[in-house]
Amino acid sequence: MLDRTLLLALLFCAGTALAADPVTYGTKAQQLISKGDFVQALEELKAATSRFPYDLELKHQLAFTYSELAKRDLQAGRYAQAGENFKQAHELIPDSKELALMRGIALYLNKDYSVARDELIQAGEGSESLVYQGKISYDTGDLPGALELWRRAKELDPANKVLATLIEKAERELPVESRMDKGYSSMFDLGFDAELPPGLSAEVLDALESAYNAVGADLGVFPTTRIPVLLYTRKDYSSVTAGPDWSGGLYDGKIRLPVGGITKLTPQLRAIIFHEFTHVLVAELTRGNVPTWFNEGLAEIEGRKEYVPRVPEVRGNHLIPMATLTKGFTGMAGTEAGLAYQQSYLMTRFMADRYGWYAVQQVLKYLGQGNNMDAAVAKALSDYSLDLNGVVREWRESLPGSGTGDAAQ
């Protein structure tokens, strides 16, 4: 009969050998990955690679797990964390151009332009790498550089319609912006037509800095990346943006303002500056996942603190459907657009007044995490047991002439 002590010793040694087997680590990690438990798989593989640093299969499994976590971070808008996880994966497989590309894209989305460009250059001369290098040049004010990169990308991918749109837009902007003078403040890069009145650019920069502080306090965010702003004559603004005649400004990654005919900063222009800067912050907070009515409603709140325009009356029995207000307003005629902005303002103002700015900030946070507006409102107003339909219902009841129709449909 085998001695009990010897048996226990043999079992212990066998267990130790089994735990030290890289195949066992890899199999367990693979089982966790198949269940979607990448975090636990990551811990298993980190422990395994520390024991077996020269095992290539474990190293590739660990890199794969880091990259899958990074992709989840990207989808959730956690761009800095995605960049870090792609970095960990790339260090394990330094020859991978795909991992360099993905990290470059994550860092571009996080507006970490300098490091993003370095990663994208490492990714080589592929079309996607050139597209994002071009976007960095475009976002930092180098239109000729952006065009050169995008044209090279187009040679590699001639059927890419998105790329064709980028090139067409940049070609439309270049003749106007190439003759602009430049101005700067702590957070803003200003381009302005040399024919504009002297002193106006400085007044605009002062208003932008005021908006940075005031709107940032309401929405709870202060950007750290410099923000480009362009001042146009009305003719140049129309040719560059192709916007509707009633448009008083635009934010498309750059704040664009028509100021032709203005000799000094007016309350109306100051209001537009606050309006457009609000779009900058909403885009940063939501990653663009925001219905138009909420985006424009917040911008109207901030703009009307500086100047209150004449607005159409909104009555509860004559409301624009929410489905229409969720989309863009640029295709609307002037009268309908005025009603759309006013209704958006009233709904958003109601939310801020009734539930507080913290609730508004929470809605923006949940939108930034990828939730739709219904879910974002329900989470932000869980203490009130309200969803979006409940908020709209309460708002409608506060309007004159309420009681018919359904604005939430």
Automatic annotation (TrEMBL):
Residues 220-399 form the Peptidase MA-like domain. Residues 1-19 form the signal peptide. The keyword Signal applies. TPR repeats lie at residues 63-96, 127-160. Pfam families: Peptidase_MA_2 (PF13485). InterPro entries: Peptidase_MA-like_dom, TPR-like_helical_dom_sf, TPR_rpt. Keywords: Signal, TPR repeat. This is Peptidase MA-like domain-containing protein.
